[in-house]
Amino acid sequence: MTRPIARFSLSLAALLLGSAAALAQQDDLIIALQLEPPHLDPTSAAAGAIDSVLYSNVFEGLTKFAEDGSIHPGLAESWDISEDGTSYTFHLHEGVTFHDGTTMDAEDVKFSLDRARAEDSQNAQKALFAGIDEVTVLDPLTVQITLKAPDGGFLFNMAWGDAVVVAPESIEGIKSNPVGTGPFTFTSWTQGDSISLTRNESYWGEAPALSRATFRFISDPTAAFAAMMAQDIDAYAGFPAPENLPQFEADPRFQVLVGSTEGETILAMNNGLEPFDDPLVREAVAHAIDRQAIIDGAMFGLGTPIGTHFAPHNPDYVDLTDLSNYDPEASKTLLADAGYPDGFTTTLKLPPPSYARRGGEIIAAQLRAVGIQTEITNLEWAQWLEEVFRGKDFGLTIVSHTEPMDINIYARPDYYFQYDNPEFRDLMAKLTATTDPAARSEMLKQAQQIIAEDHVNAFLFQLAFPTVADAKLHGLWKNQPTQATDLTGVYWEK
Q1: What is the pLDDT of residues 159-196, one digit of tens each?
Q2: What is the number of other CB atoms lying within 10 angstroms of the CB of residue 183?
């Protein structure tokens, strides 16, 4: 009679253990993104996909963006600003270590900033550091940054992913083995599939609820829909098939978050290449584009039309869409005036995101209607960075600039679309040196007007950011003040 009792006891124990496991709160996450990073160093590439995985999770800077775009303390717990605005003294948190166990101190801050602004720096946003004159270590927890002139946006600049703090001890392997100070440590990267992070049990700040997070890369919209419906993934940030959102909204298993981004989606024109070096041609291209048709056709209605490189949710935004309204006849006249009565042929190189691939087909048809023929080439992200961004080998391309407050890129003649306007550069220099909010606001409005009137690029729409997630998941960012998937506040419902 003892054997059945023993079997019963074992069965009861298994049942109780199973019940306890079922009641245990889930603490891991599988989240999908469309773009895979080309490598894992946010300080030496223009790919926002790197920040999408690593920003605030693995790497941290002196300051950081909150979801509403405000600037908060990061590795610096506080700072003092000199009366003339040219000296910032940052006081660092005590007890911060890198994931390899080495101490993070003022020397690492100096190394990071000096590396970013060095003559041979590969930092994609090197201009963020151009105003720094000197970085001085006052003591292990205090670093002083002296500027060449006052910079009203300096604390904002220090929150970018390009300004995170890295260490000389681990810099050689950073592209494949990133070592930061954040709440998650890098575990593994299966290229073409996923990146895994693990909770940093030695984190200096508040520990995250998640013990493990896996970023899966699913570029195909159909595959993204299937993976989400099958619940093979817990969330998809920046869901690439907006036509499927109503189906998720109607399903109680899921939640749909639609937020705003800093992503100005543009049809970029190579201003350094004929015929786009002619403002008349650029204006003709702008008038050939029906923005709403692109938003409806490629994004299924998600997106806000823009007429300049500025986010509509910003209080300084100016609606200049009328300067480049859809007018095919005006476009044809401008082409004739520029010496192209029969149009011309150019390249249209498209990166992987849906807005580019789907929007590219629509734009090609619109341009064809006014006589501009396009030779479409679909590029993978690494190819786009090499050919278009670095190589400037393109006529037209479509890309969303997700960096925050980045109108100053139009002051860089060597930037990929090669716009060269001394008046605009002078205005940006004045803006940098100005701290008065009202004066800065006026300058930002003037800057928007200049690039809109010059038709530097065809400004399309502000990218919306739809996220589909398990209904029990909380703490995901709805909006994208910078390109990031911040997991520090994410948790599962009990």
Answers
A1: 999 999 999 999 999 999 999 999 999 999 999 999 99
A2: 23
DSSP H or E segment with residue 108: helix 106-117
129-164: buried (b, 16+ CB within 10 Å) or exposed (e) per residue?
A: bebbeebebeeebbbbbebeebbbbbbbbbbbbbbb
Structural contact between residues 406 and 451, judged by C-beta atoms closer than 8 angstroms: no
**H or E element that contains 167:** none
pLDDT tens digits along 5-24: 444 444 444 444 444 444 56
For residue 449, CA distances in Å to 34, 57, 239, 269, 442 come to 33, 37, 33, 18, 11
Both 98 and 186 in one domain: the answer is yes
In this structure, what CATH number is given to the domain that contains residue 364? 3.10.105.10
Which residues constitute the domain of residue 209?
Answer: 27-237+476-493
With 0.85 as the threshold, say if the pTM is over it. Answer: no
Nearest to 377 by CA among 393, 400, 401: 393
Q: Within this chain, do residues 196 and 333 fall inside the same structural domain, yes or no?
A: no
Domain count for the chain:
2
Looking at the fold, whether 343 and 453 belong to one and the same domain comes out as yes
Q: How far apart are the first and last CA of the chain?
A: 42
